[in-house]
Design goal:
Blueprint (H helix, E strand, L loop, with lengths): L1 E4 L4 E4 L3 E7 L8 E18 L8 E4 L4 E9 L6 E10 L4 E9 L14 E3 L2 H5 L5 E4 L5 E2 L5 E3 L12 E2 L2 E6 L12 E5 L5 E6 L4 E9 L4 E8 L16 E6 L5 E6 L8 E3 L9 E7 L4 E6 L4 E6 L5 E5 L10 E2 L1 E2 L13 E4 L6 H5 L3 E7 L12 E3 L16 E8 L4 E8 L11 E5 L2 E6 L4 E5 L5 E5 L11 E4 H6 L2
């Protein structure tokens, strides 16, 4: 049996089943649909969204038997007809297969690119990364290995974090009077169909931005800032983007907030940094030490603080400039070491190449270094945090790079393990690196490019047209991760 349905809701009755279809053409995820069905006896179901090539089919299944199902379908194609095969199986093993075709050709996808091109030069690298799922931008627009759009929100927080926790994704709402492209005062946990589990609300006159993490103990940590008009403005008494919130991840209750702004008094920041702006931009949790790692782009500092209290504990930063009131991490292989310059992200890596360092009780981190504002000799061009930005200054265009470092948090030392980059590419203010199956994914956010490379600096997959807007933290979601978010 083959049933066609377009953008309108329809109801179709077969011999044993009643099907109702809702294609979400104007709602949360434009490339999704609901199939509502009832049966005379309990059934479980599985479905396959047929891809343009067989290696991008999307499958989903449940082991729950019911006589009334609401089936959430994701992965429809944009501007075309997509076939979905649904298998219903009763408790005695009897199966029925129903074939549906969903038509999205009349939908409005606004300025979202409905296809991109991937340059693939290493098939093994592609098969172990992009071939395992979809490339998802921070708008939650998703592309399969063929470059076709398979997921389209877009989510309304354009610098959305890319973390998934407990089978939930986290997104924000910046619409209304408090609209701001970098900040939102409301954040939600939910699924890819837009069902909300928990709402997190920032305190009055404050906002969320950029990133989250969890300690897996029922707590959610969120980066925060003052709420300000566009562009962000701050004074020495009201600095920007230097706040950490701790929430109950299940109830949305605010447990505490810590503003570290005053601890940046006298700090040196990059010449291209806004006045009085600290700019925390990423969060990671270190279970062994119950610590959170963040990074300050403007002061080029990687910072560890206590997950219970929010107190600063250590900092990895060029000691030739004034540093934060915390234990300074000493670089033990410092010959020729150049400190990060405007890094935009830090995260933990468990790559097998560096696993022995974890066994030694160290923490292995990856730093995406933008090399944002330096003189031609590579030294940073800096000024005091509260001083004005000059009309002109020198910023030499070095390639962005990635550092892999092992940090000993017993002795407060660090060792550089690896450095790699994409030749001729840089992103001055934003960008990130993620790891998947032994490879690193680099997003060059200022120039809308995406690269996958190994630790020998070989680039195997590239995309040079990722989005027409900021893409900040784009990364690959595996099929298993996507299924967990339904």
């Amino acid at each position: 049996m083959k049933i066609s349905c377009g953008n309108s809701n329809v109801e179709i009755t077969t011999d044993d089943n009643i099907f109702n279809f809702i294609v979400r053409s104007l709602e949360f995820n434009k490339l999704s649909a609901y199939i509502l069905h009832q049966t005379d006896q309990p059934t479980k179901y599985s479905y396959t969204v047929i891809g343009k090539t067989s290696d991008v089919d999307f499958t989903y299944s449940t082991d729950v038997y019911s006589s009334s199902h609401q089936i959430s379908v994701i992965g429809l194609y944009a501007n075309t007809v997509t076939q979905v095969n649904l298998i219903l199986e009763s408790e005695d093993g009897q199966q029925e297969i129903v074939y549906f075709s969903f038509d999205t050709s009349s939908q409005d996808f606004s300025d979202v690119l409905t296809s991109v091109s991937f340059d693939i030069t290493d098939e093994e690298m592609m098969n172990n990364t992009l071939g395992q799922g979809w490339l998802i931008t921070c708008f939650m627009n998703g592309y399969d290995k063929n470059g076709d759009l398979r997921l389209c929100g877009p989510y309304p927080w354009l610098t959305n974090n890319m973390k998934t926790i407990d089978n939930l994704c986290f997104y924000g709402n910046y619409s209304g009077e408090r609209e701001h492209q970098y900040h939102t005062n409301i954040m939600y946990s939910g699924n890819l169909m837009g069902h909300i589990k928990t709402t997190f609300t920032a305190p009055d006159k404050y906002a969320f931005h950029h990133d989250i993490t969890t300690d897996n103990k029922g707590n959610l940590y969120i980066l925060g800032s003052l709420w300000a008009d566009e562009p962000p403005e701050g004074t020495p008494e009201e600095r920007q983007e230097g706040i950490i919130y701790k929430y109950d991840i299940n109830t949305g209750e605010l447990l505490w907030q810590r503003d570290h702004s005053r601890e940046f008094d006298g700090m040196m920041v990059l010449m291209n940094s806004p006045v009085s702006d600290i700019h925390y931009n990423s969060l990671e949790y270190i279970e062994d030490y119950n610590q959170i790692i963040t990074s300050s782009r403007n002061s080029s500092a990687v910072i560890g603080f206590d997950a219970e209290t929010g107190d600063l504990i250590w900092v990895l930063q060029d000691p030739s400039f004034p540093v934060l009131p915390a234990k300074n991490i000493e670089i033990i292989n410092s010959d020729g070491f150049v400190y990060p310059n405007g890094q935009h992200a830090v995260f933990l890596t468990y790559h097998e190449k560096y696993s022995s360092y974890w066994d030694e009780g160290k923490t292995v981190i990856v730093i995406f270094d933008n090399r944002s504002c330096a003189f031609e000799d590579g030294t940073p061009n800096m000024r005091e945090i509260d001083s004005p930005v000059p009309d002109t200054y020198e910023a030499y265009p070095f390639d962005s790079r990635v550092y892999v470092m092992a940090i000993d948090l017993e002795n407060y030392t660090a060792e550089l393990l690896d450095t790699f980059s994409v030749s001729g590419e840089r992103t001055e203010f934003a960008g990130v690196a993620f790891e998947l199956n032994g490879y690193f994914q680099l997003t060059m956010s200022d120039i809308f490019k995406f690269f996958i490379l190994d630790t020998n600096n070989n680039v195997g997959v590239a995309c040079h047209e990722l989005d027409t807007k900021q893409v900040y933290r784009s990364r690959i979601y595996t099929y298993d991760e996507l299924r967990s978010l339904i």
